[in-house]
Design goal:
- The protein is built from 18 helices and nine strands.
- The protein has 409 residues and is mainly alpha-helical.
- The strands form four sheets. Strands 1-2-3 form a three-stranded antiparallel sheet.
- It has three domains: 39-87; 92-198; 214-400, Intergrase catalytic core (hpI Integrase, Chain A, Orthogonal Bundle), CATH 1.10.443.10.
- The protein has helices at 6-15, 21-39, 72-85, 92-105, 111-126, 144-157, 162-181, 189-195, 210-213, 217-229, 234-245, 249-252, 302-314, 331-345, 352-365, 370-377, 382-388, 396-406, and strands at residues 45-46, 53-59, 63-69, 264-267, 270-275, 281-286, 296-299, 323-324, 327-328.
Amino acid sequence: MAELSKAELLNYAVENGIVDINTITKQIEMNERKKYLEMHKYEIWQGEKDKKWYTYFPDDTKGRRLIKRASKESVESAIISYYKQHENELTIKQVFELWSEEKLEYKEIEKQSYDRYYTDFTRFFVNNKAFPNFSDKKIRFIDDEILEKFIKKTIVEMNLTEKAYGGMRILINGIFKYAKNHRYSQLSITNFMGDLNIPKRMFKQKVRDKKNGIYQEEEADRLVDYLKSQTQDLKALGILLTFETGVRVGELSSLKLEDFRKNSIHVQRTEIKYRNEDGKWTFSVQDFPKSNAGNRYIMINSNAVNTIHNINKARSDGEFLFSENGNRIKSSCFRRKLEVICKKLGIDYKSNHKIRATYGTMLIDGRVDDSIVAEQMGHVDIETTRKYYYYSNKDEEKRMEQVKSAVYY
């Protein structure tokens, strides 16, 4: 006997009296009724004096409007009719798609930011166990109370850091501002965010691991000595140049010969990563850096000049400084190379970004002017460098000596 489809089985059951069609119809109606009633957030109550039944409906001008019926069943029927009428209105997900597509089309964001928005949307709105199916909610029915509950419960249940919440907040602001401008929602996200109070204690606190924040002096010295000996290894020389200039690894892999002056490097590009039309990750070079402050001239010393000289001798012809067989060396290659070298030297591996933090720490410890430190690092101000990049890289004995010499009583 051929295998029957579900539709064929159901049809057979109805035709042969196994299942009553009226029972199925009633169950469908009950489920549909339950679905629409669950969408209604306002209380249904009976008046004490007139014994009539009341509830509120959302209203575009007043926020909500009162309705009255003779029976509770009549109120529920009115609720079902209302939500059926608005069933074709846009969901949060649909508004997000319109907003993000428009930002990409108008070049307000790059493709990598667009991809990050989608990743964050999936994380916070689609796969949010604290608020299942929140992305499928009709945006017109999301009010201040629901949105505040969504934000706070998500922070707590997903144990978000302040930085992670920042990513979610970008989406919330964009989605609801777009919805208000296009009359899909009456919620003013500007007023909402202005009134929203989220104490810092709600966020997961990240304890900065000072030891692993940068390469300690002894580790950095051993690494640099080894890297200097690798005069024919292009990737090793790239890592050495990071120690000497503090460039981001994406900036490093995007450098060209034309970026070098006698005593400086012009950082004006960076590598970006995004999904192509087939959904595969693609790496390319963006003709401007991570931020406006990232477009900078880094002053370099004679050691860096010598490193660049060795790089030029070791490289193959190509558009970019770091080219092998005519192809640009991607940032991931420098990361893997650093991991291999650390393992070889018996040093705990820390990312290429920690080399950048090591460089920033050296500048601050060397009493370089704050404005120069910020410019070398590509930061808007010194506070960014001090907050996220500065760690003491002295060994314990040297730190103890400094404390003893400072405390004289």
